[in-house]
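Entries read chain and fold; for instance:
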Amino acid sequence: MKRTRVLIVDDSVTIRRLLAAVLSRDETIEVVGSAPDAASARQMIKDLNPDVITLDVEMPNMNGLEFLEKIMRLRPMPVVMVSTLTQKGAEVTVSALELGAVDYFAKPTDNVGAHLEERARELCEKVRIAASAHVRPYVRKDRTPAPDKPDFDPGNSVVAIGSSTGGVEALIEVLSHFPKNCPATVITQHMPPHFTTSFADRLDRLCQPKVSEAKDGAILAPGQIYLAPGGEAHLEIHGKGTLRCRLVRTGPVNGHRPSVDVLFNSVAKAACPQAIGVILTGMGRDGADGLLAMRKAGAATIGQDEASSVVYGMPRVAMEIGAVEKQYALHQIGQEVMTLCEARQKAGRHAVTQ
């Protein structure tokens, strides 16, 4: 068995020891070294050639974000960020994921040892998944929002998107192609509390439409994008005629709350056939069954292709079970969604005149 070789980078000797102890207990993982700062880590990367780095956000001399950008530009490799479960930690982590970090592990500000023991399996799984991720060199992009399309008619279309590992970067790319008057859009991205708040704010600054965390009872409207709040509830849509967001505080589904399957299944019941479903990069199978339900109900369905996925898990399963009509590279998906919306609106108007 080839073990995943991990380098731990953290300025706290206590955290380095705790992380090393937890990771070393997993027989599929080998901790090859630990570094207190970016300078030491740079040399260890050259000497040890690890498969994965765990990287602290806050470090002396050069912080984690600065070091991450250098790694992703000069020697791209899988990185799992270690950040605090705070608003500030969430904001920095969202920036790190946009730079190309594969995933993150959130820790509390106190009782870190007990927290790591409780979530050891999760941490080890994130490291293993990161080792198999498709990592690309970071290229700073001019995030120019999509131009206004005054002739675009979103009608009563609803777009539902699900994503997980690699989803931050993927969603930014997809939504950058949405015009200001885009169809009502609902999104489930696997994230804990605080992190979705920061991510929604980030998307709102980068995209033409209005992006916000979904609120219970919010009416779905064109030009609005609703992101499932992390950790505490699933996002569903309900209603006849007027569709609304509903936050459902039930247990995890497929190990996730919010769950993509929960969202997609609700869209299949409430909004098909005028809906479009999109499944993006992520580990596991959450969303595959729900997307199949959407397709059976008459929705158009899209999957991200393997070459452009950070982790080709969720889209792969959806493709294998027949939930995906067609796969596209990430940079094509946003425009294809708009094209499908326009085609469906034209077909609907044509049917009415017959």
